[in-house]
Amino acid sequence: MNDTIRAGGGAGLRIVRLANFVTPASGGLRTALRELGKRYLEAGHEPVLVVPGDAESDTMTPQGRVITIPGTVLPGTGGYRVLAGRSRLITLLDELAPDRLEVSDRTTLRWTGEWARRRRVPSLMVSHETADGVLRTWGVPGTFAERAADRLNRRSAWSYSRIVCTTEWAEREFIRIGARNVVRAPLGVELDRCRPGRRSTVLRAQYADGADVLLLMCSRLSVEKRPGMALDALATLRERGLRAALVVAGEGPLHGSLTRRARESRLPVHFLGHVADRDALADLQAAADICLAPGPAETFGLSALEALASGTPVVASASSALPEVIGDAGIAAPDMPSAFADAVRELLSRPEPARREAARARAELFGWDRAVAAFLAAHDAHTSRIPGDPEAAL
């Protein structure tokens, strides 16, 4: 499909993006949508994001046009909504007449791939999590989870022009079923905002409250993220004689049970809820000594990458894609409290300047310019203006 002249006078593509499970307190997905949209706009295209909310709205933002449609709340998810009205969404898509469709939900929105196919609109489904990994975290046995995931992934691979995976780890479940339309495109990190120079000994002391080590977990507090592992690791470290404290930035359905557990076990944990101020979160990520990322189904882990950019090394679940992302700037630990505690001790044994420099160096491999170039290539989208190089063109 040829590029067309769009509102604003630019020659570019109208890239309509659909996403579920996005709330004001969302983490990595919300960040990815914002940063990709902003850079699609900078590259000369017209991004339009459609998400569920509690009321209808249509606004222009730094990431392009954002349309909110009233969505159904999913029970037990802490406020997640989905675009459940198919007829309303079809009408909107027909009105928007996208040149490209990009979908960030592989379950309830999978039908949109068939909509795009019938209208000859090239489409992408972005795999933000592995299907079998999520099923396992919800207690589905491994064999059944894999079979169910394979069925879902075959239908997704057929429905969409391309499947975008952010890591090789995420790509494997599609390779397993023989999908031939899979491409890889990493996500990125805001290197200017997340930086080691934000480290504050005053802020660290405030949250450490006399402890020798300050741990941080930035995560949605839901079953698939396994946030309880951070509390388990903290308890293990303290039992072994290491005076450590934990800060938890994030909200979710497990918040109440986790706070009760910390209180009853007398664990020094500060629950901050959702930290909406991105600068305040970056300060916190720089102040911590170690970041914990226990989610076993993570396909990329933006919060972990932000910690690395802030100079803070990461202990991540070995079951996730994060070992591929963090490299030697962190440690991949088996999903056991003792293993996470061992990894924390090992990272602390490295000289602080060296481990913080290694963390930053690793994050610098993941700039957003590289990420948006990969996503636009997956869209077969011409870039009329490259961020930072107004004279260049592809």
Give structural notes.
It is a single chain. With 394 residues, the chain is α/β, with parallel strands linked by helices. The chain has two domains: 4-188 and 367-378, Rossmann fold (3-Layer(aba) Sandwich), CATH 3.40.50.2000; 196-363, Glycogen Phosphorylase B (Rossmann fold). 40% of the residues lie in helices and 20% in strands. The chain is built from 15 helices and 18 strands. It has helices at residues 28-42, 86-96, 111-118, 131-137, 142-159, 168-175, 201-208, 228-239, 255-264, 278-287, 302-309, 322-326, 337-349, 352-363, 368-378; strands at 4-5, 11-12, 14-19, 46-53, 57-61, 64-70, 72-73, 81-82, 100-104, 123-127, 162-165, 182-184, 213-218, 244-249, 269-273, 290-293, 314-317, 330-333. The strands form four sheets. The chain has an eight-stranded mixed sheet with strand order 5-6-4-3-9-10-11-12, with helices on both faces. A six-stranded parallel sheet has the order 15-14-13-16-17-18, sandwiched between helices. A two-stranded antiparallel sheet has the order 1-2. The longest helix is centred in the middle third of the chain and has 18 residues, at 142-159. The chain is globular, with a radius of gyration of 21 Å. 47% of the residues are buried. The model is unreliable at 1-10 and 384-394 (pLDDT under 50).
- Parts with pLDDT < 50 across at least 5 consecutive residues: 1-10, 384-394
- Strand proportion, as a percent range, falls in 15-25%
Give the biggest beta sheet: 8 strands, mixed
Mean pLDDT: 89
Q: Label the structural class.
A: alpha/beta
CATH class of the largest domain: Alpha Beta
Number of helices: 15
Report the helical percentage: 25-40%
CATH topology of the largest domain: Rossmann fold
